[in-house]
Amino acid sequence: MDNHYPKNEEWITRLGEKTKATYDKYGYDLFADFGTDDTSKIGPEVRKWVIDFMMSAPVVKMVVQGVHAVDVVRKIAGETMPYKAAMGTIRGDFSIDSPALANKEKRAVMNIIHCSETPEEAEHEIKHWFGDFKTYNYKRFGVDE
Predict the structure, then answer these.
(1) Helices (H) and strands (E) in the chain, counts
(2) Which whole-number Å values give the CA distances from 20 to 38, 39, 41, in the listed order?
(3) Residues 6 or more apart from 132 whose CB is under 8 A from it?
(4) What is the pTM of this model?
(5) 61/71 Cα distance (integer angstroms)
(6) What pLDDT, on a 0 to 100 scale, did the predictor assign at position 139?
(7) Distance CA 40, CA 16 (A)
(8) Of all residues in the chain, what percent carry a pLDDT higher than 90?
(9) DSSP helix/strand/coil, 63
(10) Smaller CB count within 10 Å for the chain: N or C?
(11) Residue 112: CB atoms within 10 Å
(12) Measuring CA to CA, which residue among 86, 63, 79 is closest to residue 137?
């Protein structure tokens, strides 16, 4: 699980910055909860929470292929933050959580589904989870003829 998410400083600091932004938005005391306001030090803690959450239950993995696959899957899943996701999306119908609550409880947002953000990220995650497998290419009847 540790290799699913990037380990580079830029990505980890971005996690810390998102956490700081949530604290600022809701008027919470970042220093009281983390002992620092340095986003490069907060990011690794948040990354650990996310990995712990991913390991807390079984994971179902799949690869979706097609035109604009990343965008389409993200649309079906709904906004990343479950409390913002529209009804009719996976997150909107089956999840309710917020970064404010998660940060105060020192855990990851309980996000019921993960979706790659970009085709490049999808490529990394497919290789991580599935290795060098070959996807099954198929033709849809009446469409791909």
Answers:
(1) 7, 0
(2) 9, 7, 11
(3) none
(4) 0.76
(5) 18
(6) 75
(7) 6
(8) 57
(9) coil
(10) C
(11) 16
(12) 63
